[in-house]
Amino acid sequence: MKMDSRSSRYFFVLLILAALVAACVSSGPQKALNGMAEALKKNDSAAFLAGMDMKSFANNEMKNLAREEAPLGLLDSLGRSLGIGGMDEILGSIVDMESRLHNQFNRGVSTGELMAQCREAETPNCPWVPESLNNAKITEIGSGAAVAQVTTPARMTSWLALRKVGDRWLVVGRAVMENTAREYAVGKSAPAVPAAPAVPGEPKPQPAPEKPAPGQDTMAGDTQGVTKI
Known about the structure:
The protein is α+β, with helices and mostly antiparallel strands. The chain contains ten helices and four strands; from the N terminus they run αααααααααββββα. It has a four-stranded antiparallel beta sheet with strand order 1-2-3-4, with helices on both faces.
């Protein structure tokens, strides 16, 4: 009886531990990605978009453009140096990135095009494959940020940035490199490039000493110890 009772207690403890592990795996950032994976399978664009902070995602997509396109990167740096804002502020009135992304995801998920495209994509910016999201490798950064390494069947790896908003984890960006995803997850922009040191200028010529006027006695001012006649 004693052995049976002890075995039952061990079995009960193991069940509790297994339940806790399962809860941890199915919660947090991975739960958010699992929800998006399920939405892709069901062509449910509303559920897919509910897993994203679209405003943050759109802002980070603008930063991706600045990193990838040299002219846009120059525009971003110039705008910040002039104090008129980065590229996202400059182009905000020209291109409504948030609306454009919303429409793209809405159509792509509803029709299944997005999932099909990302299965075969040969570029590392298309992580939207259900099984890839389910098997993502999560790295939490503190208590409110995380990054996910997502590898598609085409063997292309992307990084997703996640942030805790209230009591939910939402995708806030995607990136090719882990360090970029980390920046997006914690909400920090890339560090500014330090300015080049100023080139020392040529020494300015010093003004020449004033010459006395012709016939002027240079010792006239020195009257100390001189006896006048």
